[in-house]
Amino acid sequence: MMNEIYEKIFGDNHELSEEDNNNGEEEYDVTVEEEGNNNDEEGDDVIEEDDENNNREEEATVILDSNGIDGDDDDDFSGEDLIANMAPVKGMEYDSKESLMIAYQDYAKVQGFSVAIRSSSSKYYVLACFKGRKPKDVIMKFTRQTQCPARVNCIVKTNGKVIVSNVELNHNHSLEPQLSMFMPGNRELSLHMKRLLKSRDIAGFRTCKNVRTLEVMAGGPQNLGVTERVCRNFIDKRRRLRLGEGDAKAIHGLFFRMQLQDKNFFHIMDVDDEGRMRNVMWVHSCSIAAYEEFHDVVSFDTTYLVNKYKMPLATVVGVNHHNQSILLGCGLLSHEQSESFKWFFSNWLLAMKGVQPTAMLTDQCESIKIAVKAVFPMTIHRLCLWHIASKLPQKFKGVADFRSCSSDFYSTIYNSLSIAEFESRWTDFLSKHGLHNNRWLKDLFDEKENWAPIYLNHIFWAGMVSTQRSESMHAFFDGFVNSKSTLKLFVEQYEIAIQNKIQKEMNADYQSKCVMLKLVSTFQWEKQLLGEYTHNIGLLLQVEIKKISSCNVEDVAIGEDGVHRCKIKEMRLVQNVFHKEYTYTVEYRPFGEYIKGIFCVHIFKVLVYKDINHVHDRYIMKRWRAREYRPHSSIVFAGGYPHMTEEFKAFQDMERSFVKCADAAITDPRAIKMVKEAHEKLLVDIMHMNRGGLISNPSPNGENARISTDPPAILDPPVSIPRGRPRADTRLRSNFEINTTHNRRGGGRTGSRGRRSNRSQGVA
User: Fold this and answer.
1) Angle at Cα 207 formed by Cα 202 and Cα 212, nearest 5°?
2) Nearest to 136 by CA among 47, 49, 37
3) CA distances (Å), origin 88, targets 158, 241, 355, 502
4) What is the pLDDT averaged over residues 597-604?
5) pLDDT in tens, 330-364
6) Which one of 365, 535, 628, 637 counts the least CB within 10 Å of its CB?
7) 74-133 tens-digit pLDDT
8) Which of these, 263, 291, 283, lies nearest to 630 by C-alpha position?
9) From its phi and psi, is residue 575 left (phi > 0), alpha (psi between -120 and 50) or beta?
10) Which residues contact 424 (CB under 8 A, 6 or more apart)?
């Protein structure tokens, strides 16, 4: 059977080596030399043909794989010994020039030299040792030419077959079989290796990790058959093919194709008078569906630079039922002025069917404030406390005791339990540190309703007091994109990152529906709540339940309206030591068991005090329930891998079928033999089917295949520096941030991610 395969492909005069049979797929980069070009530069003596335009590759693909990636060497045969004895002989006939080239290259690789095409025409075909040219007389640092006489002369018949007319096997230089992989004509990547490199590159693998994975699969770099540089060059070439067209045109075409797959996918692009892209925004259908349910609180941020045009990424982030961050829309903006933010908010609101968010949290930027007030007049706007606190080193620069001043500022913000207490402590804070004339503090107090927790605690914020949700989303994307990413590459990797987020939500669904948390108390209502809430919310509730022992009911006052006002004293633990006492009031109405507030340790203490075993269903929030139907979860995400070619998808389908057979047979030697024999027969049948011609290569531009209707041409945006952002990240930082950043990243990556200096240092 093995010989039959070889005869069907290469001709009737050859025997197939075990190495040829057992290895999988192979493509060859042919070294080409044209006779009579002795005056060429030395570097032009060996020219590697483009593997994408060489049809000979696909024939080799179904025959050989000398790299050992998928090979299954048989102990009964020595593939190298057979190939070493398979030198061309005068009078041999081959089916085509390509079949001769493949056979002679295999022979050359085992012997330790490389092959060059010396001459190729409709009548004659000459293969020679790649050192076959005469060394040049000019002074050069090195030369590979020794005027080696080894060659194979052939006559081409009218039917395409070739007959060997003369053979010279002797070389005038030493042969190096161990170094074959470094020779120009032997640096080939098999089709399977190319698919692996390409797919992992699309998935966001770093190039070095991508190559190392191939080396592990091959059993070491010495068995890979190619150098690391060849792999890197292939990856770079594929990236250039994917990004051959303009970035703006490519990203528009990508969105256009995604909309063909998902009719509810929303995208819009803003261009200037010259046709250059200024702003772009897109929202997936699953994000639109999720917003219908989770529009109660969102976070907006633009402090993440992700592309070579220095365009900041604008993200709208919400919170799902697992307390996870979800992306509700994103865009790339040319600048950070109110006009750009208005454009983004207006179109985002259009995508969300005109439903304004109940509450929105942003950083302290005047441009964003203007845009939010204009586009979302009904939305409660909260400013990020992190941005406010980050300005303290600059605003308190002249204070004598900065440490004490900062501590009092934080205590005033976070430890005030009523509006009256906050205003009183604020006045005391100004008097203690002599800050009555501080203009920044005066302006900050004037807009206290937009940032001070005591003015906003009655509104649901899903635990957010800063844009940390957006920051965590940005940190998540660090593994997928960087500041050098082109727009199209960024969007492709961004889609993959979102797909990863969706998978995490699905895993959280599994945990909530199939895994039951262990009870941390004997209260019956704990079991009830854990059975209703999602896994992550259940964990948060248990944290509150564990703190019940640190609370005591001090007093219960019954009002004329029948409401019981229970005073709860809580002892705060700091480093396992009771640090401070706080008194809270919980209102409880026995008739109907009404309780005011969201579940916390203080309400749980009242449940224990009143001996309540069951919580009314009205207090179990729908947004946190585990078994509530979520429309966005049933929408299939059309992004993730929108640029996979049809050829690659077809290969994956075939590969899955073969893997199933291999997995089923791997433990039974008889089954293994059966699979091999069936595979060999199938290979012969396929070659018969393609007898009329070689399998053609897919178009190198397959990723960018044209669609039925072309989107209009849009020019790339100009490279610009965002407002207020210096070349290096010279912003003032708190000691905590400096230490954290230094420990985590060794100082961070300047320019790829960080706060704007104009934001952190302030709106006066």
Assistant:
1) 115
2) 37
3) 21, 38, 76, 57
4) 90
5) 888 888 889 999 999 999 999 999 999 999 999 88
6) 628
7) 444 444 455 555 778 888 888 888 888 888 877 887 888 888 888 888 888 998 888 877
8) 291
9) left
10) none
Average pLDDT for 297-305: 81
Burial of 261 (0-12, 13-18, 19+ CB in 10 A): exposed
Buried/exposed code over 315-338 (b: 16+ C-beta within 10 A; e: otherwise): bbbbbbbbbbbbbbbbbbbbbbeb
Write the pLDDT tens digit of every residue in 701-716.
333 333 334 555 566 5
DSSP structural state of residue 331: E
Dihedral angle sign, alpha carbons of residues 334, 340, 345, 348? negative
**Mean pLDDT along residues 608-632:** 90
User: Which of 137-141, 196-200, 511-515, 676-680 has the lowest average pLDDT?
Assistant: 137-141
Q: Which residue has the higher pLDDT, 35 or 558?
A: 558
Name the residue among 717, 732, 725, 723 with its Cα closest to residue 751: 725
State mean pLDDT over 408-425: 91
> Given its phi and psi angles, is residue 149 left (phi above 0), alpha (psi -120 to 50 degrees) or beta?
alpha
Token pair 């633990």: residue? 573
First and final CA of the chain: distance in angstroms? 84
Residue ranges with strand state E in 545-635: 551-558, 564-574, 577-589, 594-595
C-alpha–C-alpha distance, residues 354 and 361, integer Å: 19
In the block, residue with structure tokens 């302290």: 364
- How far is Cα 271 from Cα 311, in angstroms, rounded to an integer? 14
∠ at Cα 249 (244, 253), nearest 5°? Answer: 100
Q: Which residues pair with 360 in a beta bridge?
A: 298, 381
What are the E-state strand segments in 121-161?
Answer: 124-129, 151-156
Q: Where are the beta strands (DSSP E) in 344-475?
A: 359-362, 380-383
